[in-house]
């Protein structure tokens, strides 16, 4: 009897494991950034795979930059809770029209068919033009205009150290769908939950701006600034510099851009290529030097010994934002 119960337990556990699933997504995005107006135009092609056992008839997208507007849910919460984040408080409420953030969707289609959608705060709800059956994939195409908010929390422009752009949660991001259904949570300054997948991102920006981002730079020969050992690449005065990144098996894509960045590339023994980006005028250079000559190698040695070698080919440490924040 005990053997029978043990076998039932084992096969039951194996059956439960076999039922595990998670959604998958591939983003291909292009943005054209105007560093003077702090605005950008974006397009994205999103291939979404429904690995769930459910038929999906709607989809949700996060528009995080919409939180940085007076009277947004994040603003009201930050001004009315008993213990507000001191970095936020009433700062959103005081933003002017050229300081707020927004993501304005211009077009949204599924497999070439225009979709019906509505926006509430930081969440876009879309009715699928075609239901997604279990195991099927579909393609969404979006076009949008956006404005980068003045730096308040995590993402934004012109932070207190003078970094021009810290770009996190900057694109229309497909919400997660799991065993509990969709997670179209309004953004009020809390944590993020996203779909794991692959990113192919192209950024056009002023030729003087140096960019660091998620994933591996695909065109160092066209960029320079020390990437791939290439220092200088001439770009005509009236042309923008194009940056092309790819990242696999991550749940987000972030980047930062500034004309005063210094870029240092370091090869770690038994580890990834590490990119350091900082402004020498405002950064503590002694700390960055210590990081480069001591901490980085020891960190990756420790992690490899206890958890396994870092699984990605590159790792970036970038001065920006409003403090330490981790992004893939």
Comma- or semicolon-separated keywords:
328 residues, alpha+beta, Immunoglobulin-like, 8-stranded mixed sheet, 4 helices
Question: How would you explain this protein's 3D organization?
Answer:
With 328 residues, this protein is α+β, with helices and mostly antiparallel strands. The protein has a domain of 154 residues: Sandwich (Immunoglobulin-like), CATH 2.60.40. Helix content is 16%, strand content 38%. The strands form five sheets. Strands 5-4-8-2-1-14-17-16 form an eight-stranded mixed beta sheet. The radius of gyration is 22 Å and the shape is globular.
Give a short overview:
With 328 residues, the chain is an alpha+beta fold.
Q: In angstroms, what separates the terminal alpha carbons?
A: 50 Å
Mean pLDDT: 91
Question: Would you state the CATH class of the domain at 21-154 and 164-177 and 190-195?
Answer: Mainly Beta
Report strand order across the widest sheet.
5-4-8-2-1-14-17-16
> What is the 3D form?
globular
Number of strands: 21
Order of helices and strands: HEEEHEEEEEEEEEEEEEHEEEEHE
Structural class: alpha+beta
Q: Under the CATH scheme, which architecture of the domain at 21-154 and 164-177 and 190-195 would be assigned?
A: Sandwich
């Amino acid at each position: 009897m005990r053997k029978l119960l043990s076998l039932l337990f084992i096969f039951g556990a194996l059956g439960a494991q076999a039922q595990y699933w998670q959604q998958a997504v591939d983003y291909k995005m292009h943005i054209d950034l105007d560093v003077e107006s702090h605005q950008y135009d974006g397009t994205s092609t999103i291939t979404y795979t429904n690995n769930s056992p459910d038929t999906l008839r709607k989809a949700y997208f996060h528009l995080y930059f919409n939180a940085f507007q007076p009277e947004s849910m994040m603003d009201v919460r930050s001004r009315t809770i008993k213990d507000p984040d001191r970095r936020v408080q009433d700062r959103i409420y005081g933003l002017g029209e050229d300081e707020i953030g927004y993501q304005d969707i211009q077009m949204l289609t599924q497999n070439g068919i225009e979709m019906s959608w509505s926006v509430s705060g930081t969440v876009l709800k879309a009715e699928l033009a075609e239901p997604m059956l279990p195991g099927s994939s579909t393609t969404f195409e979006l076009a949008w205009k956006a404005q980068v908010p003045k730096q308040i929390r995590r993402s934004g422009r012109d932070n207190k150290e003078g970094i021009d752009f810290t770009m996190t949660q900057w694109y229309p991001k497909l919400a997660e769908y799991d065993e509990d259904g969709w997670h179209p949570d309004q953004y009020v300054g809390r944590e993020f939950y996203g779909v794991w997948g692959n990113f192919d991102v192209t950024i056009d920006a002023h030729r003087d701006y140096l960019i660091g981002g998620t994933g591996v730079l695909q065109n160092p020969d066209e960029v320079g600034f020390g990437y791939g050992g290439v220092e200088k690449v001439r770009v005509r005065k009236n042309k923008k510099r194009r940056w092309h990144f790819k990242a696999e098996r991550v749940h987000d894509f972030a980047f930062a851009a500034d004309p005063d960045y210094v870029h240092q590339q370091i090869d770690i023994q038994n580890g990834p290529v590490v990119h350091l980006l900082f402004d020498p005028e405002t950064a503590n250079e002694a700390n960055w030097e210590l990081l480069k000559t001591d901490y980085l190698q020891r960190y990756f040695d420790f992690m490899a010994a206890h958890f396994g070698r870092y699984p990605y080919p590159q790792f970036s440490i970038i001065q920006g934002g409003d403090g330490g924040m981790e992004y893939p």
